[in-house]
Amino acid sequence: MIGRLNHVAIAVKDLDRSSALYRDTLGARVSPPLPQPEHGVTVVFVELPNTKIELLEPLGDNSPIAKFLEKNSDGGMHHVCYEVEDIRAARDRLKQKGARVLGDGEPKVGAHGKPVLFLHPKDFGGTLVELEQV
To answer: What per-residue confidence (pLDDT) applies to 1?
Structure first.
C-alpha cells in the first residue's frame, strides 16, 4: 500500500540557521521558505538524490511544532511521510486495520499541494506518519 519515502520532517527552532547548515555545511540544495498557515508551520525542503528532508519551524504560538519544541527543546525528527496512490483508499484500509487517523480524518492539502493525512504515532511504534497522495 505505501510507496516510496517522500520525506523525513525535522522540527527546528531557527529555520534560517538550519537551512544554512544543510546548504552551506552539507552542500545540499534548499528550497525557499514556504509559510503554511493552515498547518501552523513554515517549511523548507532539502533536496536529496533519493528523497527530501522537510525542515519545520513554528508559525505562531498555536503551532503543533511549537508544542513539539516545548517538549523537545533541541528540535528533532517530527514525522516520516510515505507516498500512496489513493489517500482515501489507504485511509479506509488503515482504519479497518485499527490505525487512527488524526484530525477529522479528511485529507488536507500539504506543503507540496497534494492531499495528506497523519496517523497516530502510538499506532506506529511512536512515529508520527504522514501519507501523501501522489
So the answer is: 85
Whether the per-residue pLDDT at 91 is higher than 90: the answer is yes
C-alpha cell at 47: 533536496
Of 88, 93, 65, 63, residue with least CA distance to 77: 65
Q: What's the pTM?
A: 0.94
Q: What is the CATH number of the domain that holds 15?
A: 3.10.180.10
Give the model's pLDDT for residue 4. Answer: 96
* Catalytic annotation, residues: 130
- Counting the structural domains of the chain, the total is 1
Give me the domain span that covers residue 59: 5-133
Q: Which helix (H) or strand (E) holds 46?
A: strand 41-47
